[in-house]
């Protein structure tokens, strides 16, 4: 049976109430990403960066998975071992929607990382400059998320999945941030069919074989239904 790799972005969580980045009124229109999503910004003002992610963590904990997250979980349940989600999202809505094979290439809001010893642990609801590392005791904790200028996580695993995919599906991402924006070309070069499901269109739209535009809570369940 075919192997499916699904790339998701902020658009899949939009209808759960989590803001996207580049839509009108999006997160990057309210905050300067250089201040809150770069190593330099964190070095300059860690308290500001913690406040930004604390607020996003609160939103995430208050949000619930939507019909698109649940449909992808149903697809995985029907085809165990054949469906992998590679998400750019740092929320945990795929997991709470029931998906198990989820790769967080941009890290996870609910995890913390020690800048001194590299230990990772479950993030407290509120993190701050005084949050100690449970392993080494240093006060150098950061959210375990990938900032601009840092390498995304799990790239070797993702490349291997893209090379073997029969179908590559991109959901709710603007196709502006690499390397994720390059996955469609990579999967296609290895012979995968490609499908895009985003609200309108993306920067890499011409590279897809097929597009199913619209809100994810409508397009994704309908697509899953068509496969099952
Ligand atoms: N259903 C489907 N797609 C939607 C919906 C919806 N309800 N609402 C918005 N979208 C689409 C938009 O049309 C847009 O194409 O989701 C996309 C969101 O794009 P971005 O805001 O750029 O988010 P994303 O592509 O995930 O951003 C990539 O940039 O700053 C970062 O690290 C951050 O992981 C993020 C990365």
At CATH level 3, the topology of the largest domain is Rossmann fold
Bound chemical compounds: adenosine-5-diphosphoribose
Query: What is the percentage of strand-forming residues?
Result: 15-25%
What does the average pLDDT come to?
97
Distance between the termini: 12 Å
CATH architecture designation of the largest domain? 3-Layer(aba) Sandwich
CATH homologous superfamily annotation of the largest domain = TPP-binding domain
Molecular structure report:
The protein has helices at residues 11-14, 27-30, 33-36, 39-44, 46-62, 67-78, 93-97, 155-164, 183-189, 216-227, and strands spanning 4-8, 83-87, 102-104, 107-114, 120-122, 141-145, 167-171, 193-197, 210-211. By secondary structure, the protein is α/β, with parallel strands linked by helices. It folds into 2 domains: 1-17 and 65-106 and 152-228, 3-Layer(aba) Sandwich (Rossmann fold), CATH 3.40.50.1220; 19-62 and 108-145, 2-Layer Sandwich (SIR2/SIRT2 'Small Domain'), CATH 3.30.1600.10. Adenosine-5-diphosphoribose binds next to helix 1.
Task: Please describe the topology of this protein.
Blueprint: E1 4-8, H1 11-14, H2 27-30, H3 33-36, H4 39-44, H5 46-62, H6 67-78, E2 83-87, H7 93-97, E3 102-104, E4 107-114, E5 120-122, E6 141-145, H8 155-164, E7 167-171, H9 183-189, E8 193-197, E9 210-211, H10 216-227
Helix pairs in contact: 6-10, 8-9
The structure holds adenosine-5-diphosphoribose.
